[in-house]
Structure formats: structure tokens, C-alpha cells
From TrEMBL:
This is Uncharacterized protein. PANTHER family: 2-OXOGLUTARATE (2OG) AND FE(II)-DEPENDENT OXYGENASE SUPERFAMILY PROTEIN. It comes from Carya illinoinensis (Pecan). It holds the Pfam family 2OG-FeII_Oxy. Residues 238-279 form the Isopenicillin N synthase-like Fe(2+) 2OG dioxygenase domain.
Length: 377
């Protein structure tokens, strides 16, 4: 091995001092230090306590892209292929030719805007905290740090007239169930909502960003299957996909769809995912002074699971379904093919409790580590 050059020695001297020892290697560290996983969790927890101005905007991609466009019309002959391609490559796409009218979306937005104008005592009274639903103030310790937010179920609030918002939530729910159906068919996993609609839970997340805030992480991370955001106007978003930070700008009147961690597990890792919700760029909305949405609210419908659910990969059935004799015959005639199939359907995730996972993901808000890592086999 060649000896160090004088220049290299000088650099080391400048870094550690003339008499300082080089930094210890991992093998010389004490055994009682935090593990890499615990250290990452602790660091994320500390960083989350920083004010929003100290977020990490440099992680966002400077290039704004248009998500893949998928026509959900029954007349689209390549619908399944389009959904599969967009879902397996990025986990983000925009739906066109859907059934939701822009007028309904605008009425729902107007009712949502009125919620933020209520006195604080009314907000807390009409939307009491019962995690994960309820009202969060801008300064609440358990809030997302990006402003006020409401997390509503489809029933919303009985004390307020929110008919358009309820209808809007119901329309998005139908679109979400259709997306899950398409995903299960295209990827080949069981659709758990087909025979039992109670297997899913909807959560409408309405949030208002504070002036001057930049989008960080995803402002509150709650697990979901699919998340849908109707594009009432031109708007840029930042989100954290498996490939890293992405900036997107969907078409007006489209529905931006992001796939979540539950869809990723259900598909046994075949579908890409997005962590948290896509967050709007506040400056883009404020540039349009004539728009009543200059306050930059976002309405995200999360199609998720009841808290008492178990999450696991929905693997395809073995060759021959339940016909054991047929399976044995195929094993004898083509052992190699059977081995390949066993490799394909092996679960990449251990089953886990949704409530425990959701609580941890929401309150710890890990920036640098995928919360699913601890459940991978």
C-alpha cells in the first residue's frame, strides 16, 4: 500500500490536530451505544422539534414534473396497464375522466374554509380530539407544525351544515375503492374491501399552511392505502416517494392519487409508496390574489384502515387454488416452476398491528428512515 503524501498528512492534521487520534472505528465503540435504528429515530425526533423554518427544503427536487395521467373511463382499453405502470414506478398518478364535478369540489372547499374562521372554542367543541380525528391548532404540540388542521370522518360534524363536504368525501371514497379494485386486479392480490366494505376507513384531512412555511416531510404521517386530492386550481406539491423528494404539478380538475404504505405491504412491495400527504407550495397559491384559496388549504382524503386492523401482505393463492391434488401433480411435473412461484409469493413483511404502527408513524414522524423497515422479513 502506498504511503500517505505530505498533502494528505497535512489534511489529516488540520482535521484532527497534530496530536489528536483519528476518529474511532465502529469496532472500537462501546457496546452500549444506541443501534443505528434507534439513533435515526432519536435524531428524527429531535429534528421534528425544530420550527418549520428549519426544515430541509433542499431535499425537495427542484424539477417540477407532471404525474402520469390515467383515464379512469371504462372506455380506456389500457386502464389496468396504465394503473400498474404508474403505481409500480412512482406511486403517484393523476386521474382524469372521473365522475366528480368541479362545482362539488369548490363547494366543499368553501365549507372547509369556513371551518378555519370559527372561534377556537367552537373548533374544539365541534371537532374534539379523538385520535386520529379532531381539530389541531397551529401551536398544538401534537399538531403537524404547519398550521391548523381538521381530520374528519365521513359523518363530519352533526352541529354544522357541511352537506357539500360530506358529499365530496363520499364521492372520493367511491373513487378510492375503484382504485383499490384496479390495483388488486393489476397486481394480483386479494381485494379485502370487495366483500367487506368495513375493512376500510376514510379520513378527510383539511389543513391550512402558515404564511412563510415551506413544505417539510409531509406534515403529519398517518398510514393509508390511497390518498386523493382534487385539483381545483393549478398548484405545486412536494412529497416524499420511495425514490426521494418529488415536486409535482397535476392538471386542473384531475385527482392526484398517491399510494401509501398499506398498499405497499398489501402488494408485497410491488407498488411504490409515498410517505404522508403531498404538501402544497404556499407561495404558488398566494401568487393568485384573486383566488379565495390564497390561504392555501388542502383537502386530502385518506382511504385507510380501522385502528383494530392487522396488516399483512395479500399473497396470491398457490397453483390450483385449494385443489391439493392438482398442486402436488404440478409440483412433481415441474418442480423448478413451483420453486420460482414459492419465491415470488414469499411475504416480504411480517404482520403487524395497524394501531401500533399508525401511532408510532404519526408521533415520531421519521424523516430519514422508512417506518416499515422494522417489519421487513
Amino acid at each position: 500500500m502506498a504511503s500517505s503524501t505530505p498533502k494528505q498528512q497535512q489534511q489529516l492534521s488540520n482535521m484532527y490536530g497534530a496530536t489528536a487520534a483519528p476518529p474511532p472505528t465502529p469496532s472500537t465503540q462501546p457496546n452500549n451505544l444506541l443501534s443505528t435504528s434507534d439513533a435515526a429515530d432519536a435524531l428524527s425526533s429531535i429534528l421534528h422539534r425544530f420550527p418549520p423554518a428549519l426544515s430541509l427544503p433542499t431535499r425537495c427536487s427542484p424539477t417540477v414534473t407532471c404525474p402520469p395521467v390515467v383515464s379512469i373511463s371504462d372506455q380506456n382499453p389500457t386502464l389496468l396497464d396504465d394503473v400498474l405502470t404508474a403505481s409500480s414506478q412512482l406511486g403517484i398518478f393523476q386521474l382524469t375522466d372521473h365522475s366528480i364535478h368541479s362545482r362539488l369540489a369548490r363547494l366543499a372547499e368553501s365549507e372547509s374554509l369556513a371551518l378555519f374562521d370559527l372561534p377556537n372554542e367552537k373548533k374544539e367543541s365541534y371537532f374534539p380530539k379523538n385520535w386520529p380525528v379532531g381539530y389541531e391548532g397551529a401551536d398544538d404540540e401534537d399538531g403537524d407544525g404547519l398550521g391548523e388542521s381538521f381530520r374528519l370522518e365521513s359523518s363530519c360534524s352533526a352541529e354544522l351544515s357541511l352537506d357539500s363536504l360530506r358529499e365530496f368525501i363520499g364521492a372520493l371514497e367511491k373513487v378510492g375503492l375503484r382504485i383499490i379494485e384496479l390495483l388488486s386486479t393489476a397486481v394480483g392480490f386479494e381485494n379485502p374491501t370487495e366483500e367487506d366494505p368495513t375493512r376500510f376507513h376514510s379520513l378527510m384531512w383539511i389543513s391550512e399552511a402558515l404564511p412563510g412555511n415551506k413544505p417539510i416531510m409531509a406534515g403529519g404521517f398517518y398510514p393509508y392505502i390511497v390518498c386523493m386530492q382534487y385539483q381545483i386550481r393549478y398548484q405545486k406539491y412536494s412529497l416524499l416517494a420511495d425514490s426521494g423528494w418529488v415536486s409535482v404539478s397535476p392538471q386542473v380538475d384531475s385527482i392526484m392519487v398517491t399510494l401509501g404504505d398499506i398498499a405497499h405491504v398489501w402488494s408485497n412491495g410491488k407498488l411504490k409508496k409515498v410517505r404522508g400527504r403531498a404538501m402544497a407550495h404556499l407561495g404558488d397559491a398566494n401568487n393568485n390574489k384573486k383566488d379565495n384559496n390564497s390561504r392555501c388549504i388542502s383537502m386530502s382524503l385518506l382511504l385507510t384502515l380501522p385502528v383494530d386492523s392487522k396488516v399483512s401482505s395479500l399473497l396470491p393463492r398457490p397453483i390450483g387454488g385449494n385443489d391439493q391434488e392438482t398442486d402436488e401433480q404440478k409440483i412433481q411435473t415441474d418442480g423448478s416452476a413451483c420453486h420460482e412461484q414459492q419465491e415470488e409469493i414469499r411475504s416480504k413483511f411480517n404482520s403487524f398491528c395497524f394501531e401500533d404502527y399508525a401511532w408510532r408513524a404519526y408521533h415520531e414522524r421519521l424523516l430519514f428512515k422508512d417506518p416499515l423497515d422494522r417489519y421487513r422479513t
